[in-house]
Structures are given as C-alpha cells and as structure tokens.
Amino acid sequence: MKHRKIAFIALLVFVFSSYTSSFLWAGEAANLLMTTVDKGLAVLKDPALKGNDKIQERRQKLWEEISFIFHFEEMAKRSLGVYWKDRSAEEKKGFVELFTEILKESYVGKTDTYSGEKVALVSDKMDGKYACVQTKLVTNKGTDVSVEYRMLNNQGDWKIYDVIIEGVSLVNNYRSQFNSILTKSSYADLVVRIKEKSNN
Amino acid sequence: MRTSAVLKCVVLTFAFLFWACFGEGTFPAAWGDSVAVERDVVPSDEDVSGKAVEKEATSVGVVIDAAFGKEPSPISSNSPNGESEDGGGVADKAVTETPLEGENTGKVGMVVASSAASEQSLAVEGKASSAAGDKQAVAGVAASEGSNNGEEPTFGDTESPPVKDSLPSFNRTMYNVNDKIYYYGLKPAYKGYNFIVPEKARVSVRNFFTNLKMPVRFFNCLFQAKFATAGIEMSRFLINSTIGLAGFFDPAKSQFNMEMHDADFGHKVSSGTYINWPIIGPSTVRDTVGYVGDLALNPTTWVSFFFLTPIESIGRGAYETVNDTSIDKGATYESITVGAVDPYVALQDAYVQNRNKKIKE
Asked: pLDDT tens digits, residue range A163-183?
C-alpha cells in the first residue's frame, strides 16, 4: 500500500516536472543555491552540533558553509541606496564589513529555532546576469514560507544580493531603516547605531 | 433589546456590502485585473511538484540533485504563463542601455548605479552611468510613489516606494507600548501555554479558528471577483469541516493540495497612512477599514456578540492571540525587530512589503 503511494507520488512528480521544465532543468544559480542550502541544513541537522550549548559552534560552522554565496558588497551598497555614492572608499569598505556583521547576526540567528523544516525549490528564472530563485520553507506547522533569492552573476560566480521572505526584502528592510536614520542625522551617527546594535 | 442588536448587524452588513461594491475599489475595476491574477492563484504545477517533494519523505536534496543532473537550459524560455512584466528584462535593459534615456525611473537608475559600480572593467562608461543613475535615483526617491507603482517586480532591484507615515510620534509610542505588551504579557503567556499544550494541538486550534473564518476569505474573494479562489475556499471549508473534524485538521491542504487564500478587505484601494494600533499592531487606514469590515464577516464576532459576555469575548480573543503567537507570530515579530537597527522602521517596512505581496497574489 505504502509502496503504491510512493510510486504514485513519484509518477506525479515526473509528470509535473516534465510540465515545469524549471524543476528538471534548474539553472546553475538555482543549482548552486540548493546545494548550499543542503549544506546549511546538514549543519543544522548534525546531531553533534545540536542543543543550546553548541549555539556558537553551530552558527560558526553554518556561516563557513554558506557565507560565500552572499554578495555582501552588493547588499551593503543596495541597502545604503542613494547615500552609497557619497561615501569615501574607506567608508564603503567599513560599511560593507559592518553590514556583513549585522547580516550574519540576523540571518544565522534565525536558524537557532530550526526544527526540521525542509526547503523545496519552486521555480527559477534567469535573465542575463540576474537570477531569481523561488524556494519555500516547508514547516511542520501546516504553513509554507516563501523565500525568494535574487542572485547576480559576479564574474562567473552566482551570488545572492537579496533575500525576500514572504514578500519582505531584506535589503529593502535595511534600506528603509538606514534611510530613516540618514534623513534625520549623519552617516557617522548611523555607523554608531549599527555598532551599538551589533555589540548587543 | 435583541431585535435592535440584530438590526444593527444587518445595517452594518449592508453598509459593508455597499462599500465593497461601490467604494473606492469598485467591482468592475477589480474585474479586469483579477482574470490575470486568478491564474497565479490556482495552485500551479510547480506548487504541486514542490509539495510532492515534501511528501515523498526522501531528503529534498536527493530529489533536487537528481533533478539537477540534467543540463541546465536557458530559463528565459520558460517564464510561466507568459508573464509579460517579468522584470528581468527591465533590469537587463538598465544595464545595457545608455544612461541618457530620460524615461528611466529612479528604480532603474539605482540598478545602473549599483551594477555599474561593480563592473570595474567598464570604468569610464560605468562612472558615467552611475552618476546619471544616482541622479535619477534621487529624483525617484523624492518623487516617491509617482514613478514606480510597483507594477514591475524587477530582478535588478526590489525597491518599494517610501511608506507614508503621517503619525510618526503616535506610531512610535504605540510601537513601544506593543513591544512591552509582547515581552511582558504575551510572551510569558505563550511560553507557559507552550509548556502545557503540545505544538500539534496548538496548530489544530489555529486550524479550527482559520476554518471558522472561512466567510471572511470567501466573501472577499467574491468581492474581488476571484471566483476560482472563492470556490477553493468553499471546498476547503467543506472538506475541513467534515473530514477535518470541524476544522481541527487541514486535510484540504495536506491531502488535496488546496492552499488557503488569505483574501481580506484591504485590496484595490490606496493604502493611506501607516497606523500602529495598540495591541492590534501595524496597519494602514485602508487595512483598518478592512479589519472592521472583516470583523463583520467573522463568525466569531457574531458568536461573541450574541452569546458571550464582554469578558468572555475578550478571553476568547486573547486565547486565539496567544495561540497564534505561540505557533509562529511571536518568532516572526522577534526575527523582524531583534536584528534591526531601527526596529520601528523595520516592522513598518516589513508590514507594508508583506501586505503588498499579499495584495498582488
């Protein structure tokens, strides 16, 4: 009975995936992304790294596995928006480092509550040097969370420049915050506030 | 006494129906777009295959790796449903076109600015276009919603127009009040509740309330002329109320792959200013009107109105809130605000972006 069900589902997968060629012939961006996601999930599932006392170790390991796929400079640039071009080369470099730090904290911190969620590829699109990979996080709470990755071909390597969770773009969210601070006060002030945040 | 209450409800419902049909988001206006929207709303093949991956109980990675064994083909050929406003083309155009095109919106300008800066090899052209791009970007931001109406979801950039916030001091105060309510009231309550009630039961309670609120989604789908979606909602209700044991389980999703469509009242109307309500949290003028309209369609409101004392209704509402928060709302709230440099703005922006996505669906 169970075998029959599995065979039936496998058939369904085959039929539907031949319809949606994006599933069978996912582009290289999606391929890279899903391999990286799997590596990340492997870290989260690793029994040796489970538990609250191993949080730092697990976060560090996860970061080593996945950080290469993010285009931090691009993300920092986009999150600063129109204010980016007024920065000196040194300020830009410093800001990218700061941004990497807060991103690491917020992105990796979100995985602390991981409880067996799965990641499924929904679709991907590529256009020139841009790609958009749609995935979903299948939770065991009866809800799916849509997670979309925007990727950019950076000299042959596909890198993420934005993550959009349930329609909320990470870069946009930071840009709103930075804009709201920068319209009222200076860039130096923004740096102070970000540093305060990452020290907490 | 009772008759006047019934009369009140009837009047309220009619007022609500009237607003729905002849208000700002008029019925015929909704008609045109909804045909295009509907196609996305019906669960696509991709959704189903995604589901199947999950149900197969094998590691997702294995399936996906197997799928990736095939050679990648040019993806641009398979954009689903012939979506014309795919956006990818826009971003691409922004990179290749000369910066002299005056019609480029600020948004596209931003793409030019950022992508040009990353291409060192095209130094001269890059510099020229980045300067022009930034100038346009400034104009774009200043002109706010005028230039980009969110019609084209670009690959290149995902900038949304700035949020209109006419009550910043009230909203900020309310943000702080709600934050305190969350950390000192709601969170301890749901932590205790979590300790007593297992997650499966909590999800069932949520399913029960969700199923009960079917009329809200059903009628809103009808008002927006999304008939296929309304049909799905009705089928979901029938399945879940019977096989799903009065809605405590969700076989319509797990067995029949029918996704819930969270239609509500705040569609097709401009959003108005952002308002952060006490307890209820982020909203806009439009969504507040919608919230009140949805309350009128919500059977739990009617139950509270006729059969419960005020204290009991508050208790019921509080219970539902605690239950929802215990499942994922609490985690969502924390994940938005904890990592943020300015949590108030982060929550506001997340609310508006998420609303825009739901409305587009």
From this structure: 998 888 888 889 989 988 988
A38, B53: Cβ pair inside 8 Å? Answer: no
| E strand intervals along chain B | 274-277, 281-284
- With beta carbons under 8 A apart, name residues in chain B contacting A128: 88, 91-92, 95
Q: What is the CA radius of gyration of chain B?
A: 24
What are the φ and ψ backbone dihedral angles of B264, each rounded to 5 degrees? -140, -170
| A154: closest chain B residue by CA | B118
The answer to whether the beta carbons of residues A125 and A35 sit under 8 Å apart is no
Residue B156 in contact with residue B94, Cβ under 8 Å?
Answer: yes
Question: Distance (Å, rounded) from C-alpha B343 to C-alpha B320?
Answer: 25
For helices B187-196 and B199-212, angle between their N-to-C axes, nearest 10 degrees: 110
Interface contact flag, A123 B117, Cβ < 8 Å: no
Which chain A residue shows the shortest CA-CA distance from B332? A110
Give chain A positions within 8 Å (CB) of B86. 125, 127
* 3-state secondary structure string across A54-102: HHHHHHHHHHHHHHHHECHHHHHHHHHHHHHHHCCHHHHHHHHHHHHHH
Most confident of B221-225, B235-239, B251-255, B303-307: B235-239
Element (H, E) at A161: strand A157-165
Strand arrangement of the beta sheet that strand A157-165 belongs to: A118-127, A130-138, A144-154, A157-165, A168-169
With an 8 Å Cβ cutoff, are B74 and A126 in contact?
yes
First to last CA, chain B: 43
B247 vs B49, more confident: B247
What ipTM was reported for this prediction?
A: 0.76
Q: Residue B331: its chain A contacts at CB < 8 A?
A: 113
**How confident is the model at residue B267, as a pLDDT?**
62
Under 8 Å between Cβ of B276 and B291: no
> In chain A, what are the domains?
2-198 (3.10.450.710)
Rounded to 5 degrees, φ, ψ at A139 are -90, 165
Chain centroid to CA A106:
11
Cα→Cα distances A116→A6, A56, B51, B195, Å: 21, 19, 16, 20
Cβ-based contacts under 8 A for chains A and B: 225
Planar angle of CA A53, A138, B320, nearest 5 degrees: 85
Contact A38 B60 (CB under 8 A): yes
Whether residues B52 and A139 touch (CB distance < 8 A) is answered with no
Helix (H, G, I), strand (E, B) or coil at A120: strand
